[in-house]
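Researcher: Here's a chain I'd like modeled. Treat it as a single chain, no partners, no ligands.
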Amino acid sequence: MQKYIVLFFLMPLFLFSCKGDRAPKGIISHDRMVSLLIEVHLIDGRMYGVYQSQDSINKYSTSRYDALFKRYGTDSVTFKKSLKYYTFHPTELAKMYDVITTTLKQKTDSLNTVQRKDDSLKRLQIKKVNNALPE
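Model: Modeled as a single isolated chain. Structure tokens:
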């Protein structure tokens, strides 16, 4: 009889300890979190790409983050809660960062291609101007 009582109390504990694949309520979904993290990293890159003091970086980045969170319909508290959730699920976070790094690399490659084309056009224009000048 005692065995059945122990089983009776252990069974709900076992059932509630099994977690599903879904994130709990209040956590940003996988796809939205990927998009949001891409934007966060782009903002970070913009802010640290120009030389500024740490105070002005914090001042201007806060307004950019707030605008980003507003655009995604979330807030910094939910973002931090979601990021904390995903850090406790490293395989999920690794999948997310695979997509993030691939996307950021594609953006960098496309920017580099545009920059190379722009540099080539500038060199051609300079060459034409130099050839047109009388000696």
